[in-house]
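ESCALATION

Customer reports they have been waiting on this structure for their group meeting. Please prioritize. Original submission:
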Amino acid sequence: MEYKRFGGTIVARMDPGEEIQEQLRAIAQEERIQLASVSALGAINDFTVGVFNTETKVYASNRFQGPYEIVSLTGTITTMDGAYYAHLHMSAGDASGKVFGGHLNTATVSATCEMVIMVIDGQVDRRFSEEIGLNLFKF
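Update from on-call: job pushed to the front of the queue and completed.
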């Protein structure tokens, strides 16, 4: 992985075999990011995404392996109890044009991942909501 910072924007390239969440965490910690918007595209060959069931408050995860193109990867970097916290969603398409997606758990780069991180001057923490079952923004 390599990246370069341009003021409040970071442009990163992740390489084959690298895990997207791990590399994003490394950048955020090195750059001391507390609040940012994230977007990316690229190619992956192994990813797991989940969908949150609002009734049971449980994620159902699905793993996909093979050649996939990231159609969209978007999310936020915040903090929870003052520590790094990323919330990302991703959709990826296969060779037949079928697209699968959800809350991103893991994704391994097969060719490249081009990511743009828009750093926001500020901090938003999170707290767990018993009612919803998720870690929500805490202002």
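Sent to customer with the following note: Residues 50 and 135 are 15 Å apart (CA to CA).
Escalation resolved.
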